[in-house]
Amino acid sequence: MRYRTFSARRSRARASMFPAFALATVMLAGCDADLAPAAPSEPQVPTVRPEASRTLVDQVAAGGYVLFFRHSERDASAMPTAEVAIADNKGECRPGTELTTAGIEDAKAIGASFVRHGIRVQQVYASPACRAVQMASLAFGTFQSTRALTWLGMWGEGEGPALATELRQLLGTPPAPGQTIVLISHNDVLKADRVGVEVSLGQGEAAVFHPTGRHAFALVGRIPLEEWRR
Question: Is the pLDDT of residue 120 over 90?
Fold first, then answer.
């Protein structure tokens, strides 16, 4: 993977915990890096179960998870999708590719909520698109940019299979004990033909994965924006 490293000042905002969503786990079989994306596997017994008295945010704070965020709010009406893809590949920041004022505030709130809940971040990876870079910078400070987190419109010819393999590797890599890996990407990236599970996320929402290595991982649940924001 090709990376760029960015730094920015961490921002603070208040946030509070809300009840966790119901656990929904889908086990994904590992696959070799030179193979095309695997077909979805059959649901299996969950490998991770939160304690009844703990929220999903509390569970994440204990470490051992990968959080896949869809970037916070952008103005989707400001630019046609085809133009957004071109601008995203250039890393251009303008209406339609960048965060709105509300998206900026939500990114700050997410970062502050991580601090408040004591979620230790080992590494942050972001799509090179402006809004993902902005969110990573505002919420977490230091991060690495990777094309593995780009959306379909950004892909070059024949690039999809390699990027899907890299994405599965990110989702399946266990962090160090007590720590969390954060991915900041787009909607319509977690597709069955890429990662074996179909997940649609709202802006600022996170899907929580439990990685087991060798491109294998379990979908544990979701943390909506409201839980970070409040």
Answer: yes
